[in-house]
From TrEMBL, chain B:
Keywords carried by this UniProt record: Cell inner membrane, Cell membrane, Membrane, Transmembrane, Transmembrane helix
Any one of the GO CC terms: ATP-binding cassette (ABC) transporter complex
Protein's organism: Vreelandella nigrificans
Protein known as: ABC transporter permease
Transmembrane segments: 128-144, 165-188, 200-220, 267-288, 308-328, 348-367
InterPro entries, per database record: ABC_MlaE_roteobac, Permease_MalE
GO molecular function: phospholipid transporter activity
């Protein structure tokens, strides 16, 4: 996170801008001419039916999948044009929370979080582990969990610990792949709240892939809907919900959609 | 004293510049030079250009958590985000972040470790016996019901663990056969008894090496494969899924593997014997002036079929032990990737150990029986 005194002026400046993205797996076209913009400091919810390529989009942006065509501009630079080393410099400013946490199973929690601090920021082990425990406390885990190994954690704790690791280097952009999937409703609501609080304090932008309607209502500033191989619409939740498309109407006006909306209004 | 990050003028301390992770070491040393902060000093944070969690943590450590939580009162000209960051980090630092260092008593720890290892070893052997019992109890009733035999799975395992291992077993035993022939020739030459090299090679390969080398190879190759396969299934909850559907994982997963090994290992042991003899014969004919015909004649004259049967009789035992240990270790895997590795190692070590142990016991037994 690097917010300066002028950060308010930077608001609504794009940190990610995807233009004309094409992704194919063999003959199966996942994305065709996909455009997407993520603005500074916002939480963008990305929704879409299963198999519409939400995770593929995330993987293309963070550089785990090379797109077949199109440009991806992140923090003002085109990732595809960069050399390995420059790319690594840009990727340092990403934090990624994978769907199942992807904590390193051979390291305990504080070592998991300290790893990028030691490798990238060249901190000593003790300093890095102190900051790691601070990050754990920041995401609401007791520092006593620092010595536990990932296999002994519950689903909610894994998600929080993975968030702490994603935040290790104070990223400018946080990528979350279904962070509330598999959490109980209380844990999911607490995660949404935590995300907004941290965003307000740390000022990062969030690319949030989710199926969770409650998360959309509680946390997201804007919502992008993936459908028909592209981003159908990106706008505030209210406007997206009233967009004239069959899938969107089913999604937001279905029983679950209405329940989430109702819960949020109260 | 103007500085890049901190300026002290009388009772005023002002922070400035980039308080970020990249400057962590420099910032830390600047602050440690300052020593204790007295509460009377006035602090100004206005000059801060950039602030992240690491920088905020250092500032809060220096000025104290209470003072940091009141940032909005005394530093209201700071941007809202940075105020929020300082308050949020200060809250996170309220819980004591230091964890008690683990105390170590080297001697008692060492003793406790030895005790732990011993009791682990004991329970491991008990588990193994129990599992052997379970496998046999599932296997025997099933023998009477051929319609429940799983031919496809069994054949597939025979191919993987038996057929695909033929080249490596043949090559290895061929080379060991050649080496034994050379050794025998070197020692026996002094007595003018080079011809007995044939007996040496034949005796060692028919009784011991053919089956032992094949078993050790399969212990490394197949026991590890079984453990990794079942371990991955266990951590993916596939085995729980089978049980939840009322299917018996022993019948579905373990028996085809055990039976495949019972078929494969005797065949491989036979291949090993032949190939070892061939190695000996090649060395004999190329460098010891013993012709192939002479080799075969001596073999026929001196070697009774008992030796071959003694060697081969051990193969099913080895096969059963290797397969059972491989499967049991697979079932013991819990969750993590590390656990799969640990149990694979353990399965290879245990099965090789058991093979050699049983072979030694069998050698004693056969010797006493005069077979």
């Amino acid at each position: 996170m690097t917010h300066s005194n002028k950060s308010s002026e930077q608001h609504s400046q794009p940190v990610i801008s995807v233009r004309g993205l094409v992704n194919r797996f063999g003959a199966n076209v996942v994305h065709e001419n996909l455009d997407l913009t993520l603005n500074q400091g916002e939480i963008l919810g990305v929704v879409g039916g299963s198999g519409t390529g939400k995770s593929v989009l995330l993987r293309s942006i963070v550089g785990l999948k090379r797109p077949n065509d199109g440009t991806i501009e992140v923090l003002g630079t085109r990732l595809n044009d960069l050399s390995e080393e420059q790319r690594s410099q840009v990727e340092r400013r990403f934090g990624v929370l994978f769907q199942r946490g992807a904590l390193f199973s051979s390291l305990n929690l504080q070592e998991n979080i300290a790893l990028p601090l030691i490798e990238h920021a060249k901190l000593g082990r003790e300093e890095a582990e102190y900051l790691a425990r601070l990050k754990l406390s920041l995401v609401g885990l007791s520092p006593n969990t620092a010595l536990q190994f990932p296999e002994s954690l519950s689903g909610g704790m894994v998600k929080r610990a993975a968030l702490a690791r994603a935040l290790a280097l104070d990223p400018d952009i946080l990528f979350l792949d279904e962070p509330t999937a598999g959490l109980d409703p209380i844990g999911a609501a607490a995660f949404d709240e935590l995300l907004v609080t941290l965003r307000d304090a740390l000022g990062f932008s969030v690319f949030l892939v989710t199926h969770d309607l409650d998360t959309l209502y509680a946390a997201c500033d804007r919502v992008a809907v993936l459908s028909q191989k592209r981003v159908l619409v990106t706008d505030t939740l209210a406007r997206v919900a009233s967009y004239d498309d069959e899938w969107i109407q089913d999604y937001f006006q279905g029983p679950r959609g209405r329940a989430a909306q109702h819960a949020h209004q109260n | 004293m103007p500085d890049e990050w901190l300026t002290v003028e009388g009772a005023n301390i002002s922070f400035q510049g980039k308080w970020t992770l990249d400057n962590f070491h420099a910032l830390k040393s600047v602050l440690s030079q300052q020593g204790e902060l007295s509460s009377k000093k006035k602090i100004s944070l206005n000059g801060i250009e950039r602030l992240d969690t690491a920088g905020a943590a250092l500032i809060i450590e220096f000025i104290g958590i209470e003072r940091a939580k009141q940032v909005p009162e005394w530093a209201s000209e700071l941007p809202k985000e940075q105020q929020a960051l300082l308050v949020r980090i200060a809250e996170a630092m309220e819980v004591p972040l230091d964890i008690p260092p683990c105390t170590r008593h080297s001697i008692t720890d060492a003793l406790a470790n030895i005790g732990q290892k011993m009791s682990d070893l004991w329970s491991q052997q008990r588990q193994l016996l129990a599992f052997i019992g379970l496998v046999l109890a599932t296997l025997i009733p099933l023998l009477l019901r051929p319609h429940r035999w799983r031919f496809t799975a069994t054949i597939a395992h025979i191919q993987q663990s038996g057929l695909n291992a033929v080249p490596i077993v043949a090559l290895l035993t061929f080379m060991v056969g050649a080496v034994v022939a050379f050794l025998g020739a070197t020692v026996l030459e002094d007595f003018g008894a080079t011809i007995y090299t044939i007996d040496l090679v034949a005796f060692s390969f028919l009784r011991e090496f053919g089956v032992l080398l094949a078993a050790i190879l399969l212990a490394g190759r197949t026991a590890s494969a079984f453990t990794a396969q079942l371990g991955a299934m266990k951590s993916n909850e596939e085995i729980d899924a089978l049980q939840a559907q009322g299917l018996d994982p022993i019948e579905l997963l373990v028996l085809p593997r055990v039976i495949a090994m019972l078929v494969s290992l005797p065949l491989l042991a036979f291949v090993g014997m032949l190939s070892g003899l061939l190695g000996g014969a090649v060395v004999a004919s190329l460098s010891l002036d013993i012709s192939l015909t002479q080799f075969m004649t001596t073999l026929q004259k001196d070697m009774s079929v008992t030796h071959f049967l003694v060697g081969l009789s051990k193969a099913p035992v080895f096969a059963f032990v290797i397969a059972v240990i491989g499967c049991l270790e697979g079932f013991k895997v819990s969750g993590s990737a590390q656990s799969v590795g640990a149990h694979t190692t353990s399965s290879v070590v245990q099965s090789i150990f058991m093979v050699i142990l049983i072979d030694a016991l069998a050698a004693l037994f056969f010797m006493e029986m005069g077979w």
